[in-house]
Design goal:
The complex is a heterodimer of chains A (about 500) and B (about 475). Chain A has helices at about 1-25, 35-45, 55-65, 70-95, 100-110, 130-140, 180-190, 200-215, 225-240, 245-260, 270-300, 315-325, 345-355, 365-370, 395-405, 490-499, and strands at about 305-310, 330-340, 360-365, 375-380, 385, 390-395, 410-415, 440-445, 445, 465-470, 475-480, 480-485. In chain A, β5 and β6 (about 390-395) form a beta hairpin. In chain A, α8 (about 200-215) runs antiparallel to α11 and α10 packs antiparallel against α11 (about 270-300). In chain A, about 50% of the residues lie in helices and about 10% in strands. With about 475 residues, chain B is an alpha/beta fold. In chain B, the strands form 7 sheets. Chain B has a 7-stranded mixed sheet with strand order 5-4-1-6-12-8-13, with helices on both faces. A 6-stranded parallel sheet of chain B has the order 15-18-21-24-27-30, with no helix packed on it. In chain B, strands 16-19-22-25-28-31 form a 6-stranded parallel sheet, with no helix packed on it. In chain B, α4 packs across α7. The chains are: A alpha/beta (about 500), B alpha/beta (about 475).
């Protein structure tokens, strides 16, 4: 539309201006590519791309490097632009409804094109420049850098690999003053695996943020809406160092940042804080608790008497569905498939058996043996990607594949807040590497792999996630309804319109 | 604020009365630094900026004059209590309850350790524990202790510590003194933790992380007076008690009006959110039964056991000597203080430490010893394996081996002391000889020593010195 084109033109001019300024100052070349992401993010909620949001986390400290004169100028410019855009947004919401959603997906790609090389989800540990930038950013935020551990398999050398025995708290002072104690506790719980699972991590994160907001006081001469977001940035870096953020956590953080920056400046601190706390409560209630209820309602329609349901690992949502179905007096039995090294299926088994559901327990190596008995497969998801791929615990794609071969329907249950705009077709590009020592097992006092580091040709790989193509998934059950896997981009678009 | 540090420095040193006769235990010199400097240094290194120090007026006075204490950069909030010794550690915590705003880290003044403190605090944080403590493998002190002929096998009361399979969760704690017939373990514990490891060779380092709710609980329950003796066993027991049945009064008679620790713990905000997160998380701390993580218990006690590294509690003479030997190795400080005057013909071993303003004359030999500030060592003195405190004068020709000589003592010319303990301000006669003796003012102590004397090789000179 005309307005979009005008906006684009304005931004290009602004980019050129900043490029010139930067060349004059002989700064560390942040790159022209870094500028566009700052703008869409500062627009707030119009730009749907999640990629630019973490990038500004690195950019605003980078901008803080510049001499004070240009920083003040830039800030003033940015503020003026923000105000004008907010005003235009108010006007826009009044008249144009339809053209906006269709134009939006067009506008971001053009802004994002220069940024494509530096999407933050694409961790590049084997690129020393990127590592240096990360180290500098962490130093600015006063967060210790966690060092990688052990030999990394070459295909995954671009990912971080940390050891559980070297927690990040080793390098922090004990009464942690830089990072809020609730966040330190959360980081520890993430890195030790005490809080594991997409939903649990998001809920724990929001709980910790509630404590942070409660203990927050606005410093003088600062606005709550801007300062609180800046306060949260080092915490998020810290949590990222403890364990890479999940897609659900990323979405929750985006929501909170949006809510914080939308607080009007004349709002009093107490009011603002209570508003934020209620927003968080609302988010959890809507997106997690009520969504689970809705998904359970839809799924129960799909479970008939006499079913043999196969589940993999421990998905809180799938467990909830099965327990609800059992309450509604459906007659079915469950086969729990488990895999090393996490062996999360034991926990799922415990929860189901405690309710009285009859279960069978097998390891993933027996899945082709047990599949002829199975009538349905219910899988949980860590995230649903924009091209319809399902990102879940490693082993899920294998189960989906074997189920497809046996013509068994595969149903994936996932709340909409886990939908993310990333696109991935393989499990290599973006994944998480867990501690390789977790693969070592001691049986009868003997630990065969104890000295694996000394064998030069041996590498231990402990992957956490894998990606399932949409061809293997028959149905995705979300709180918006039961949709095919390829409809995920539509849901994302609808979500963005709502926001 | 996450944690507040509290240093308990009001202890009497009841197990080494000879040393603490003149100098209170927190100010005893170890490696020429006062004993309480070590835990303060540990806290400072870890990152604390403020410490609440509970001590007596005497110690406070000495603290303000000691040069080493001025090195401590943290802000010390000193709370003075009476010296009569009736106040236990828990009573002291109750005394400062108003100052406690967050969870508290209690350290004893006689702890010398280089443990990574984050291990203990991480247990406290990650599991949202009520108590996290530090224990180490007990040390066998092999050196001969001055003042004791032969190795005295002290019938130290053993501690029985029960931990779960991971070695982190504390399930059972009892002292031998409290157990009459035998060790009895409640069925509720065995049902929840069928595998328990009971260890007896552990020494408590008296370093505790406590939740703020515990301090509030102490304020209500005035019957608990010692952290180690009463509070810790109470908390460990309470982990497994049924919270619903209040009439079940076990050992401590709890007043019905007082809030139980469970109520205080549960009254934290956002409890439902935490519950939700725990429910949704696929983690459990134990396997094999149908219960959820932590068996649904809110009260959890954890222990971190170290088997390597330095961890001493300096509460006996043997520990004191061992600490003097090892403490200097903790820090990279020059063995000889720059202000000490040492003549060239003095043979000094590398393990020795010389304090400030010392004067060491010619032809002396100092090996494996610690010499305090302002001491004078004259010619031809041989000092081996000894601890000499501040202000001591050692005249010529002395031979001192394996001794502990307290402040301001004077050792006369030609004295030969082996494994002796000389109290403060004492004077040893010239040409005096002593083997395994304690030269202190307390005459009553000598009565059992007379039997030792009969068996030892004694000169007539000895009997004269003993009459002092």
């Amino acid at each position: 539309t005309k307005e979009e084109k005008q906006r684009l033109r304005k931004e290009k001019k602004h980019q050129k201006k900043i490029k010139e300024k930067k060349d004059d100052k002989e700064e560390k070349p942040v790159g022209a590519a870094s500028q566009p992401p700052t703008q869409p993010s500062q627009k707030g909620d119009l730009a749907p791309a999640p990629a630019p949001v973490p990038v500004p986390a690195s950019e605003t400290p980078a901008l803080a490097d510049k001499p004070a004169k240009s920083k003040a100028d830039l800030k003033a410019e940015r503020r003026a632009r923000q105000e004008s855009e907010r005003a235009s947004k108010q006007g826009k919401k009044g008249d144009v409804g339809q053209p906006v959603p269709t134009s939006k997906p067009k506008a971001p790609p053009s802004e994002l094109q220069p940024v494509v090389k530096r999407l933050p989800e694409h961790v590049q540990v084997d690129n020393p420049d990127v590592l240096k930038k990360l180290a500098k950013k962490l130093e600015r935020q006063q967060i210790p850098l966690r060092s990688d551990y052990g030999y990394k398999v070459s295909l995954f050398s671009h990912l971080h690999q940390y050891s559980r025995k070297a927690p990040l708290t080793q390098q922090l002072g004990i009464p942690s003053t830089v990072i809020h104690p609730a966040i330190v506790r959360l980081g520890l719980q993430y890195s030790q695996g005490i809080v594991a699972g997409s939903n649990a991590r998001s809920v724990a994160l929001l709980h910790a943020f509630k404590q942070v907001i409660r203990d927050y006081t606005t410093p003088p001469n600062e606005e709550l809406s801007r300062d609180l977001v800046n306060k949260l940035k080092p915490y998020i870096s810290f949590l990222n160092q403890c364990r890479p953020l999940s897609a659900s956590m990323g979405n929750a953080i985006k929501y909170i940042k949006k809510e914080i920056s939308n607080i009007p400046s004349q709002c009093k601190e107490e009011e603002a804080k209570s508003k934020l706390l209620s927003c968080i409560e609302c988010y959890i209630n809507e997106k997690i608790i009520l969504a689970a209820k809705a998904i359970a309602k839809y799924s129960i329609e799909k479970i008939s008497d006499g079913d043999v349901i196969l589940v993999y690992g421990c998905s809180s949502l799938v467990n909830h569905i099965l327990c609800e179905a059992f309450e509604k007096k459906r007659k079915f039995r469950v086969i729990v498939v488990d895999s090393r090294p996490r062996l999360e299926g034991r926990e799922a088994l415990r929860r189901l058996v405690q309710r009285g559901i009859s279960c069978t327990y097998v390891l993933i190596s027996a899945v082709s043996y047990i599949l002829p008995e199975v009538s349905k497969v219910f899988l949980g998801a860590h995230a649903l990607l924009a091209n319809g791929y399902v990102m879940s615990r490693v082993g899920t794609s294998q189960i989906a594949l074997v189920a497809k071969a046996f013509n068994v329907p595969v149903l994936v249950c996932c709340e909409t807040y886990k939908f993310c705009e990333r696109v991935q077709t393989d499990s290599f590009v973006s994944n998480e590497l867990d501690d390789p020592d977790e693969l070592i097992v001691t049986r009868k006092g003997k630990t065969q792999l104890e000295h694996w580091q000394e064998v030069p040709s041996l590498g231990l790989l402990n992957l956490v996630y894998d990606v399932t193509p949409p061809d293997f998934v028959d149905l995705v059950i979300t709180d918006l309804g039961m949709i095919p896997c390829t409809s995920v981009p539509v849901v994302l678009r609808v979500k963005n319109v709502d926001q | 604020m996450e944690l507040q540090a509290v240093l308990m420095a009001a202890g009497g040193g009841s197990r080494m009365p000879d040393l603490t006769y003149n100098t209170p235990k927190p100010m005893l010199p170890v490696g020429n630094k006062p004993l309480m400097w070590y835990p303060l240094n540990l806290l400072e290194r870890v990152g604390f900026e403020e410490v609440i120090v509970i001590t007596t007026k005497e110690v406070h006075k000495m603290m303000s004059t000691d040069p080493k204490m001025k090195d401590v950069k943290m802000k010390l909030d000193v709370v003075c209590i009476q010296e009569d010794g009736d106040m236990g550690t828990a009573d002291a915590l109750r005394h400062i309850q108003q100052k406690i705003k967050t969870d508290v880290l209690v350290v004893s003044c006689d702890l010398i350790t280089d443990v990574a403190l984050h291990e203990v605090v991480d247990l406290f944080r990650a599991h949202n524990a009520t108590l996290a403590m530090l224990m180490s493998k007990a040390h066998e002190f092999t050196d001969t202790v001055p003042g004791q002929k032969g190795k005295k096998k002290t019938a130290e009361q053993r501690d029985f510590v029960g931990v779960d399979q991971s070695g982190k969760r504390l399930l059972f704690m009892a002292n031998e003194a409290d157990l009459e017939d035998g060790l009895s373990i409640r069925k509720s514990i065995m049902r929840k933790h069928p595998r328990m490891h009971i260890k007896t060779g552990l020494e408590d380092a008296h370093l505790y992380c406590l939740k703020k709710a515990v301090v509030d609980f102490l304020a209500d329950n005035k019957s608990i007076s010692s952290i180690r003796g009463e509070l810790v066993p109470y908390l460990v027991r309470k982990q497994f008690s049924k919270t619903t049945n209040s009439p079940k009064i076990k050992d401590d008679a709890e007043d019905q009006n007082q809030k139980t620790i469970d109520e205080l713990l549960i009254s934290s905000r956002d409890e439902p959110l935490l519950q939700l997160a725990q429910e949704r998380s696929c983690w459990n701390d134990h396997r094999g039964d149908m219960s959820e993580a932590y068996h649904g218990g809110k009260l959890r006690c954890y222990v971190h056991i170290i088997d390597q590294g330095l961890c001493y509690r300096v509460n006996t003479l043997a520990a004191y000597i061992e600490a003097n030997r090892l403490a200097p190795k903790l820090f990279e400080e020059p063995a000889v203080h720059p202000s000490a005057v040492i003549s060239e013909r003095c043979q000094m071993g590398s393990d020795s430490i010389i304090g400030a303003l010392c004067q060491v004359a010619d032809k002396t030999s100092i090996k494996r010893s610690t010499i305090g500030n302002s001491t004078t060592v004259k010619e031809k003195v041989k000092v081996t394996n000894s601890i000499i405190m501040h202000g001591v004068t050692i005249e010529e020709g002395c031979n001192i081996q394996g001794c502990v000589i307290c402040s301001n003592a004077v050792i006369g010319r030609g004295a030969d002391l082996k494994y002796c303990l000389v109290g403060s301000g004492q004077q040893i006669e010239p040409e005096g000889e002593g083997h395994y003796h304690k030269h202190t003012k307390n005459i009553v102590r000598f009565i059992p020593l007379i039997f030792f004397l009969l068996t030892a090789i004694v000169n007539t000179n000895d009997l004269l010195t003993l009459s002092y």
